[in-house]
Amino acid sequence: QAGACIVEIGRRLLRAKELMPHGEWAAWLAEKVEFSERSAQKFMRVAKGYANPQPVADLGLSKALLLLQVPENEREEFVAKSHEVDGEEKQVAEMSKRELEQVIRERDEARKAAEAARADAETWKNTADAKEISLQNAKKKVQESETAAKSAELALAEVRKLSTQAETAHEKEY
User: pTM higher than 0.70 for the full model?
Assistant: First the structure.
């Protein structure tokens, strides 16, 4: 219930802030609530971040804030599954704040590494594709050169034949 209460407190603070005239929010907070403006901002961030408070129902404010680092469309699944923490499988509710920070950091690092690997793979694929195109172009040029060489050989043979015929004709004239 703690998570649901945190979200509800944040929603009510957001609503109260909307109703306050400009510049009176801090004074109203100091007079009406038992926590600081910074704490109020944390509650409001959680309320904005969780349309559905169920994923954070068993978590405190600090864990709910940490989980805002996980994209909203992945958050419920992240909370529902077990994560390895120092060789032990744990649910988010069982983790300390430090452990949750570590799991989120490792998740982000793994994602960055995977993105870098995908980018490298794409670069290598593009390079390989370009090399394949170059190879195909070179093969085509070789074939064209071979065809040109055969044509030149045929032309040379024809020239030799005509030259021989011309010499024979020339000799017959004398």
Answer: no
